[in-house]
């Protein structure tokens, strides 16, 4: 696999901080992580999604192999979480989160439905098999990002592509 190949990396970890209960906002530590991620990932042409639930992180990173490996190494050294475990690493032709430097998805809605479907009472991403990882990623693609209004977008991209994108994607055979 060359360093330029596009890869999708998925990992899970456990937060070392005690999540602060906010009425309807985003956990403040997670908000800071998102801000950093959006700034750096936009620069490195990395996209993905971060999910935080029940004290666990589930993150997908997509981009050039060399750059994804670099950010994953940085993330692994971050004291805000521990027990960082790689769940999946594969070369892909298409990115699922092309339009997001780092999308944020909360546990509610689609994710809860998925847990119900697999008979899981809590979010325990270490126990996810390939099928569940795929299911959760698809749920994340479909989910709304509640942080969009709250956390400033990166200057490059952290929003769904405007309607014109669909046309160009079809033109490029990606639609
Ligand atoms: C769960 C989690 C996810 C993170 N995701 C990213 C990410 O996608 N991109 C990123 O650059 N940093 C991410 N970080 C932060 C990095 O660990 C690190 O703090 C940051 O990249 C340092 O950037 P700076 O040198 O610009 O401050 C994440 C941290 C945690 C705990």
TrEMBL record:
Gene3D superfamilies: 3.30.70.100. It holds the Pfam family BLUF. Coiled coil: none annotated. Residues 6-103 form the BLUF domain. It comes from the Bacteria. One of its GO terms (molecular function) is blue light photoreceptor activity. This is BLUF domain-containing protein. It comes from Natronospira elongata.
């Amino acid at each position: 696999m060359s360093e330029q190949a596009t890869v999708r990396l998925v990992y899970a970890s456990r937060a070392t901080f005690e999540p602060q209960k906010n009425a309807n906002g985003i956990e403040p530590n997670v908000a800071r992580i998102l801000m950093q991620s959006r700034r750096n990932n936009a620069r490195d042409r990395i996209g993905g999604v971060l999910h935080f639930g029940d004290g666990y992180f589930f993150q997908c990173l997509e981009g050039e192999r060399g750059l994804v490996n670099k950010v994953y190494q940085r993330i692994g050294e971050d004291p805000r979480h521990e027990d960082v475990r790689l769940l999946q690493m594969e070369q892909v032709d298409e990115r699922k989160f092309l339009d997001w430097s780092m999308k944020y998805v909360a546990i509610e809605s689609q994710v809860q439905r998925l847990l119900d479907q697999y008979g899981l009472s809590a979010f325990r991403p270490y126990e996810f098999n390939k099928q569940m990882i795929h299911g959760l990623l698809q749920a994340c693609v479909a989910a709304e990002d509640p942080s969009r209004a709250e956390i400033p977008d990166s200057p490059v991209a952290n929003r769904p592509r405007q309607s014109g994108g669909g046309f160009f994607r079809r033109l490029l055979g990606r639609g």
